[in-house]
Amino acid sequence: MIIGSASYSQSNIDTISNTKLEEVVVTATKTLRQLSTLPMPAKLITKDEIAKSSSAKLSDILDDQPGIFIVPDFGGGNGIQIQGLDSQYTLLLIDGSPIIGRQSGTLDLDRISIGNIEQIEIIKGSSSSLYGTDALGGVVNLITSKTKDSISAEASYKISTFNTNDISVNLGKISQNGDNLNFYFNSFDSNGYDLNDDPILNTVEPYKSYTGFLRHNFKKNKWSYFSSVRIYNEN
């Protein structure tokens, strides 16, 4: 695999001293809590860990976690099992909002690009009291990145076997009134491959997908709000 990336950022004029704090999660209790104080098993995967894995898919990262199993679905994608329960009982979220588009109870992990993910929060065990029956096995919450600079831009390109290409672009801007706007685009395609002589079907069919994500964070009357839209297309 060959990986290339480039980034640019323009810092704000004011400078703020940074202090390293203990890792915090939101998913387990729907409130900001330190990882060590949670009442249930939780795992936090940071942005640095995601980058070091060189993984192109969410399924590859989750498959490395103990107690989590990636299982193929009938549509050729991959679902997730936690605590031995079927994949329909694991809830997947982006910034705390459920990801829609399940087929036969399974949400294909290969649909989810990880190029704009800041951290992954994994809660093992029933969270049905907070998230409903879809979370009997556990919850996986993907927290998207937000720019910390007045203007930022980042692009990456990964190429691997079977003519697999993964292109990502991240753009961010903080306005003068503090609004935080982030845009992400990903293009992923592969020629697939065939391990047998079947003239009809390949072991893995050629694949191409596009993901677009737009998030707007803003404050009004001392309240914080955000709106987001995610578009996905594959063929």
Description:
With 235 residues, this protein is mainly β. The protein has 2 domains: 120 residues, Ferric Hydroxamate Uptake Protein, Chain A, domain 1; 84 residues, no CATH class. The chain has a 6-stranded antiparallel β-sheet, with no helix packed on it. Strands 4-9-10-7-8 form a 5-stranded mixed β-sheet. It is globular and about 65 Å long. 25% of the residues are buried. About 4% of the residues have low confidence.
Briefly, what is this?
The protein has 235 residues and is mainly beta. It is 7% helix and 46% strand. The protein is globular, with a radius of gyration of 19 Å.
Number of strands: 15
Overall SS class:
mainly beta
Helix content: under 10%
Please mark out the parts with pLDDT under 50 across 5 or more consecutive residues, or reply none.
13-21
Q: Please compute the radius of gyration using only Cα atoms.
A: 19 Å
The CATH architecture name of the largest domain reads Beta Complex
**What's the N-to-C terminus distance?**
23 Å
CATH topology of the largest domain: Ferric Hydroxamate Uptake Protein, Chain A, domain 1
Q: For the record, what CATH class of the largest domain applies? A: Mainly Beta
Report the CATH superfamily of the largest domain. TonB-dependent receptor, plug domain
The shape, in one word, is: globular
H/I helix tally: 3
Overall pLDDT score:
82
Order of helices and strands: EEEEHHEEEEEHEEEEEE
> How many domains comprise the coordinates?
2
Main sheet strand line-up: 1-11-12-13-14-15
Estimate the strand proportion: over 45%
Largest sheet descriptor: 6 strands, antiparallel
